[in-house]
Amino acid sequence: MDDDRYGKFAAVVASLVLLPIVLELLSWYIEQEDYSVSRAITVISVISALAVLALALGRFRTRLPVFLVAAIAVAAVGEGVMGFIAAFGPVWWQASLQSELLGLVTAGVSAFTVVAGVYLLLLYRKGLYLPHFVSAQVAKPTGTTRKVIGESEVLIRVAPGADVSLAKVTDACVAMLDKNDLHFVGYFAGERCLFHTDVLDDANLVHHFQDTTQEQRRDMYLRAGKRLQWLNTRLDQQLVELESGFLIRTVLDVERGALYFYWIDTGRYLLGVTLNQHKVDVADDKMAKLVDTIRGIFALPPINQREKPSKPRAHLRLLSRGERWSDSGS
């Protein structure tokens, strides 16, 4: 089931704008008056314009927060102009003071709305997150193949029209999967997932799926990858003044496992998942090695090289009989 909040946005708007036509027809029927053709043309024109707008918003619903805030600001500017005319028009036309006060209140409210709209737009550009508006709908890979590697069955799902040169990248990701630690890897480029592979169907992992199925979890991971990409892009904007380069690794260490976001190159990143909380570090190391492997495929230098600390060597000596421990306790 498509749970995209704005997948049926056009239909909702169309149903709302059709309501005036129904009311107009009902009024015409009850009052038995001649229906004005010019009024009908006006209503149909307005509804057609709103329908076109609804379709446009349906296609670009990922930018809907900006559209909504911009619409508020534009409407507020129009209200401000009308409020200004209503406020100072009575002075010019020697009208009553009551309408002047009403116009001043309208102008004040609209001015506040304009400032609020501009402020929200600036915050959005700086990385304000609007979770109820941001859509994480992504195109899902559909070409499915399965391989048996060792004791696990690996699912590989590739997007239509994916570049055949990704075969080495796919093989590298498949090689890293293991039913004990790294369970899911997705490769994203641009605005879509080119392929993902996992061992979620393994019998040893069944207990991790109580309220969701393996297929539902795959869809959730793809949406999570899109959201993490959105979030990391805005964090990069916040950190640009530090001159520290791109954010190359984000780990969400949750109660039951972890999600890994790894930056590969501009517009390319990996999403990894482990369901085993005891193997978070192991899966993290695998993701780091995998990214460097993929960068090598694209003739890029490694960026996740890690130096593991050597094991500390104990300096022990035997105590002679009668010798006491040092008071320092060391």
- End-to-end distance: 63 Å
The coarse overall form would be elongated
Low-confidence stretches: 1-6, 131-135
What Rg do the Cα atoms give? 30 Å
Q: How many helical elements?
A: 7
As a percent range, the share of strand residues is 5-15%
Strand tally? 7
Q: Quickly give the structural class.
A: alpha+beta
Quote the average pLDDT. Answer: 75
N-to-C series of helices and strands? HHHHEEHEEHEEEH
**Helix fraction bin:** 40-55%
User: Order of strands across the widest beta sheet?
Assistant: 1-2-4-3-7-6-5
Please, what is the oligomeric state? single chain
Let me know the largest β-sheet. Answer: 7 strands, antiparallel
In brief, what are we looking at here?
This protein has 330 residues and is α+β, with helices and mostly antiparallel strands.
Task: Describe the overall structure.
Helices cover 48% and strands 15% of the residues. With 330 residues, it is an alpha+beta fold. It has a 7-stranded antiparallel beta sheet, with helices on both faces. Strand 6 (257-265) and strand 7 (268-274) form a beta hairpin. The termini are far apart. Mean pLDDT is 75; it is low at 1-6 and 131-135.
Please write out the topology:
Layout: H1 9-31, H2 37-59, H3 64-93, H4 97-125, E1 143-149, E2 152-158, H5 167-176, E3 184-189, E4 192-198, H6 214-239, E5 249-254, E6 257-265, E7 268-274, H7 280-297
Antiparallel strand pairs: 1-2, 2-4, 3-4, 3-7, 5-6, 6-7
